[in-house]
């Protein structure tokens, strides 16, 4: 990124003129345009299609679309608010689905271990 493409505004700082032999100091301010906020539309679509617990994926998708609309209109503050809400909903949706998957794996392992023990006990009872 070349900073010479941005508008430059020279600014003089006062307060050093009283020093003997001191020249006035000049600073240059570079105005960098603000980066538009991310709308998290892809993440919201994935949460909506693949993991939609308690309709969090749908809500995140709606807020992502609102953030994109605000960004197109030039309202970066409104877009940031909607994008932040969409991000929060996506995090909750992803975390909830991860917990559900982890819990189902744990329950499956425990159930299969108990079933295996019950089958062994039944076979030992039948043979004895």
UniProtKB/TrEMBL annotation:
- What keywords were assigned to this record? Membrane, Transmembrane, Transmembrane helix
Indicate the principal place this protein occupies in or around the cell.
membrane
**Which compartments is it annotated to reside in?**
Membrane
Residue intervals passing through the bilayer: 41-63, 89-110
User: Which superkingdom heads the taxonomic lineage of this protein's source?
Assistant: Eukaryota
Q: Name one Pfam family in it.
A: CD225
Annotated GO CC locations: plasma membrane
InterPro entries the record matches = CD225/Dispanin_fam (IPR007593), IFITM_antiviral_protein (IPR051517)
Instruction: Say which family it is in.
Output: Belongs to the CD225/Dispanin family.
Protein's UniProt name? Uncharacterized protein
């Amino acid at each position: 990124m070349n900073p010479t493409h941005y508008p430059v505004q020279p600014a003089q700082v006062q307060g050093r003129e009283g020093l003997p032999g001191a020249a006035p100091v000049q600073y240059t301010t570079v105005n960098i345009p603000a980066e538009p906020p991310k709308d998290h539309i892809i993440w919201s679509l994935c949460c909506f299609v693949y993991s939609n617990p308690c309709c969090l994926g749908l809500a995140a998708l709606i807020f992502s679309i609102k953030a994109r609309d605000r960004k197109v209109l030039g309202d970066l503050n409104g877009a940031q608010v909607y994008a932040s809400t969409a991000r929060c909903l996506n995090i909750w949706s992803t975390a909830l689905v991860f917990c559900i998957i982890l819990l189902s794996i744990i329950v499956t392992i425990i159930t299969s271990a108990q079933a295996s023990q019950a089958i062994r006990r039944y076979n030992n009872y039948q043979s004895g």
